[in-house]
Amino acid sequence: MSISTIRGTQGDAGIGRSGDGFVLEAVEKSFAAEGRTTKAVENFNFAARKGEFVALIGPSGCGKSTVLRMLADLDQPSAGKVLVHGVSPQVLRRAHAIGVAFQDAALLPWRSVEANIGLPLEVAGRTGSDRVAHLIDLVALKGFEKARPSHLSGGMKQRAALARALVMQPDLLLLDEPFGALDDLTRQRLNFELQRIWSDAGTTAVLVTHSIPEAVLLADRVVVISPRPGTVQEIVTIDLPRPRSPETLTTPEFHALCDRLSRALFAGEHQAANQP
Ligand SMILES: Nc1ncnc2c1ncn2[C@@H]1O[C@H](COP(=O)(O)OP(=O)(O)O)[C@@H](O)[C@H]1O
Ligand SMILES: [Mg+2]
Known about the structure:
With 276 residues, the protein is α/β, with parallel strands linked by helices. It has helices spanning 3-7, 64-71, 89-94, 113-117, 119-123, 129-138, 154-166, 184-201, 212-218, 252-273; strands at 22-33, 36-48, 53-57, 79-84, 98-102, 172-176, 204-208, 221-225, 232-237. The strands form two sheets. It has a six-stranded mixed beta sheet with strand order 5-6-7-3-8-9, with helices on both faces. Strands 2-1-4 form a three-stranded antiparallel beta sheet. Strand 8 (221-225) and strand 9 form a beta hairpin. Helix 9 packs across helix 10. The longest helix is centred in the C-terminal third of the chain and has 22 residues, at 252-273. The protein is globular, with a radius of gyration of 18 Å. Adenosine-5'-diphosphate binds next to strand 1, strand 2 and helix 2.
């Protein structure tokens, strides 16, 4: 059974008008700290389709997490407009329709795997042990339902965090370097699992990553963000056929896209370094 069967509606995953997923329009975000103002994000414009998989890449400190936090309603823009599925992120967050997984899996150490995954349901006052069991199956943690996080490997913790992010069948899935701390092989396996889960769920997804191959493997479009203040420097459409497989990684098309993105990233950093 897929997540879409549980939620009962598949929606128009991947199709639809540009912008019916989320819209960032002239978004600016400044932080005031210790008498100084840091402009993290400036004139940020991007629109995603419902069901689209978007990857954000850019140098450290360019505002990737800030953009994600504004989509999650964990931060407010200083100027501009953020809309997700046509409403403000606040409306969606209050409806528990945003799933978030960050680099640090942030599982509660005293709770079992299943109790961690089911936590958002409890918070929302809903039940759903079937759904928790299904997700445990989906992220390949069967047999570890009762285990505490300290008994799990890094990859298993991230899979549990991913399942927790999905338990409310979110309209929007936000992933901030979720596999950053893992070894390459585990990371690649999780990338393929994530692709399968996302395509089953039909959710709009945003992935922040430092890995160009990870972005190319998963995304429909990759947004290259300039050094701070972060703005959209380039948008690269990844037109590789789906589902993408380990063979995809060996194709000339895959390598050409990786090269193109690494040139774009380098160009942005070079420009910033040469600014007066
Ligand atoms: N809460 C905050 N207070 C002050 N400055 C912040 C805050 N959050 C982020 N920043 C600053 O905003 C910039 C962008 O941060 P962030 O979005 O975390 O970058 P990235 O995720 O791309 O590495 C950085 O210079 C960071 O120091
Ligand atoms: Mg970050």
